[in-house]
Design brief:
Layout lengths: L4 E6 L5 H18 L6 E6 L12 H17 L6 E6 L11 E6 L7 H8 L2 E4 L2 H9 L4 E3 L22 E6 L8 H12 L5 E6 L7 H14 L6 E3 L5 H9 L3 E4 L8 H8 L3 E5 L14 E3 L3 E4 L16 E4 L2 H17 L8 H5 L2 H13 L2
Parallel strand pairs: 1-2, 1-3, 3-4, 4-5, 5-6, 7-8, 7-10, 8-9, 10-11, 11-12
Antiparallel strand pairs: 13-14
Helix pairs in contact: 1-11, 5-9
């Protein structure tokens, strides 16, 4: 069968978009390493290349370099491309036949965002986002993101005591993620109870050290400095894997996500989870693999920090929840942990959302361009 020619326009830094890009590239490399030559790739990095927080594979790095050289020396614009980018970066492409996997987490696309999405064949990793843009008259599709086989796996962990139940929050601080509300509610139920601990990794790289420290201090003050709530700073993928492996129950109460990277992968390696039953979560979180919390309402996202009212990007609302429903889900998750510390149903996500099916989906889309 004749090979196809495809371009890849990928960020290769440490953003969410880059995590998905690197997952795609590592999967293609793994396939070709097994002498299964799929396609002729032309790689165009759209950011500075940064693998400092990734596992260093010299052979993979050399393979990447060859794909980038192939792009510079042999590409022409009639070859279709697949780009992974935020909506406001969809306007530019190396190809006349551009496909973009983009990320959207709210519910009111602006004229700027809609115009950007019209310039390419647009795809979303969230059915919720896809439906919002379809309602605006855009042709778009859903591409599920796979389990990140390269960065998440089961590890043996040493806890202070075997019967300790560890809850965990792992997402950068933003008001839309309801961190303060969630932690306060958890503390009212479990604060200073020696049988439970809440580990949090919520530092936001967009904020400076002083701002992150102030956020943590304000949260701790609101919960009376409960001794069983701990905050951590995490930089490397391996550290994220260890952090999540240390948990029994993941907490994912964000009101709006384009894709819930850490929680999805955590459930896929057998962690129990409390998950808001909304937005992109509905593509993977079910009653069988998570304790779901139905949203109670929507609220405007504006926080005068990350989301500014009247801006040409990121306008609209996110989901909220009732604390009583969250606490019921905590009971549900604890009950499941006591029955079996391993979330057997979570493992099914690895099969349903495989990295090979992700690559095949992209190849099929490009083949039709």
């Amino acid at each position: 069968m004749a090979k196809h020619n495809f371009a890849l326009e990928f960020p290769l830094n440490n953003s969410l978009e880059a995590k998905i890009s690197k997952l795609f590239l590592r999967t293609v490399y793994e396939i070709e390493k097994n002498d299964i030559k799929h396609e002729n790739w032309f790689l165009f990095p759209t950011t500075d290349v940064d693998f400092s927080s990734d596992y260093n594979d010299e052979h993979f790095n050399i393979w990447l370099m060859h794909q980038a050289i192939n792009g510079r020396e042999n590409y022409n614009r009639n070859i279709p491309s697949f780009k992974i980018a935020k909506l406001d970066n969809c306007l530019n492409s190396v190809s006349y036949k551009s496909n973009v996997l983009s990320f959207y987490e709210l519910d009111s696309p602006t004229n700027s965002e809609l115009n950007s999405a019209r310039q390419s064949k647009i795809h979303f990793p969230s059915s919720y986002s896809k439906d919002i843009f379809k309602e605006k008259g855009l042709g778009c599709s859903f591409i599920p993101i796979p389990f990140d086989y390269f960065n998440f796996s089961n590890l043996e962990t040493n806890k202070e005591k075997d019967d300790l139940i560890v809850f965990s929050i792992q997402s950068e601080f933003q008001a839309k993620r309801h961190h303060a509300k969630t932690i306060k509610a958890w503390a009212e139920k479990y604060g200073n109870n020696k049988n439970y601990i809440l580990q949090c990794a919520i530092n936001n790289k967009a904020l400076n050290q002083s701002q992150n420290k102030q956020i943590v201090e304000q949260i701790l003050k609101s919960v009376g400095n409960a001794s069983n709530i701990k905050f951590y700073t995490i930089d490397h993928h391996n550290d994220w894997n260890r952090f999540i492996n240390n948990a029994d129950i993941l907490i994912s109460m964000s009101g709006g996500e384009s894709f819930n990277y850490y929680d999805f992968n955590g459930v896929a390696i057998g962690k129990h989870a409390i998950v808001l039953n909304a937005h992109s979560n509905k593509d993977w979180a079910t009653e069988d693999n998570c304790c779901l919390v139905n949203p109670s309402k929507k609220a405007f996202v504006y926080d005068n920090l990350f989301y500014l009212k009247g801006h040409f990007l990121n306008q609209g609302s996110v989901f909220d929840f009732d604390v009583s429903d969250f606490l019921k889900a905590c009971d549900c998750a604890v009950e499941r942990v006591l029955k079996n510390k391993v979330n057997e149903n979570g493992f099914l996500l690895q099969q349903k959302h495989s990295k090979e099916s992700f690559v095949n989906n992209v190849i099929n889309i490009l083949s039709q361009s």
